[in-house]
Amino acid sequence: MLVSLTVGKVDAGVAVLLTEDKRLIEFPSILLPPDISSGSIVDITVARNHKSESDATSAFHSLQSTIFRTFGQRTPTAPILRCRNATQTSVVLEWDPIDIATAELRGLTLYRNGSKAGTIPKPTEVHSTKLSGLAVDTEYVFHLILKTSAGTFASEKLKVQTHKMTDLSGITITPGHMPAALRESLQVTVGRIGAKLVDTVRIDTTHFVCTEGRGPAWEKAVENNIPVVVPDWVKGCERDGRIVGVRGYYLNADPRLRQIGPGGSTQGSPQIPQQQQQQQQQQQQPVKSPLMSPRTEVTPPTPEKTTHEREPEDAAPPPPPKDDQSEASERSEPEKWPAPEPKSHAEEQKVRTEDLKPSAEESEEDSEEEEDSSGAKAAEAGLPTRAKPGAKHEKDDEAGFDDVTL
């Protein structure tokens, strides 16, 4: 088919051609002759190339067949989940290597009782996991979810029941360094309680039993937080018929911390001795005397001297009264000296008679002055005063020395 077109305008890369009925056609200028310009007329022949069309169709169908054979015949398979081991508080789950066919892996997630328990790291390499901290004698439901570019695939739900405290079949023991005789005894004991004995430390190993903490197996057990106990722990489980705590059976643990019997009492530390020890400690502690609060006491007046000799006139004056603070401190202390015994009536009469001798007239005035001064000081100190017997008779009776009867 031959078509004549008129060149209207030539731009860089594009030329505008006009048909006979005045239609505009944009045509690549690179396909036109190099010497054309506006107003030139070009003839273009248009024909169908059947051979090239057939070759392109054949190549397209071949590509589709290759894509189907590579990506369309196999799809990812759902993971198959199973229980490897179960104890009183832990579960070990495992599954076959995942098959994602030609799809791209997006993730592998574990679910427990319908809730997400965690994402499995490196799903193409890791094929097992361990869940700890579960409840004793409780049923759990687990399943895996595989996410790929070809879709999401879920595994069958797996029901797992944790063991009772008396079920020792879930215990998996890896022996370490110990004497040969002790290892043989350990094997016999493990067989009797129904536990398992493995040579290497695995993900389902529950306890590492040894007498010396050394070797690569011991290091791996410590790295994986596996309890390292002595062989007596297995014997303790057999003796009690149940799994016992490992606190007192570590390599460097005190044997007195080991539990004996279902009551949970420990060796060497019963409850009664502990109470006795506490009582002894309380008795050994010094008893603190209660603090005595200060109190005010009225002491009786000091009795007069019974000696026949009078004190000399130039005797030293009585000491000044103490202040309130010193008096309160002295009164707060317990009395060390007993109170003076009261005198009989005859002794008082004798003292009065001796005081009323003629020698007393000479110093009567001086004694009255001393009594007045001592009474004033006693009044200032807050002590009661007592009148002198001789003065009382003189005021009341106004009698002489001759009138006094012995």
From TrEMBL:
Gene Ontology MF term list: protein dimerization activity
Gene Ontology, cellular component aspect: exomer complex; trans-Golgi network
Fibronectin type-III domain boundaries: 75-169
Residues in coiled coil: none
Region: Disordered, residue numbers: 256-406
Gene3D superfamilies on file: 6.20.120.50, BRCT domain, Immunoglobulins
Ranges of biased composition (kind: Low complexity): 267-286
Biased composition range(s): Basic and acidic residues: 321-360
Sequence ranges of Acidic residues compositional bias: 361-373
UniProt xrefs under SUPFAM superfamilies: BRCT domain (SSF52113), Fibronectin type III (SSF49265)
Record GO biological process: conjugation with cellular fusion; Golgi to plasma membrane transport
Annotated BRCT domain residues: 163-251
PANTHER family named among the record's database cross-references: CHITIN BIOSYNTHESIS PROTEIN CHS5 (PTHR47351:SF1)
Name by which UniProt lists this protein: Uncharacterized protein
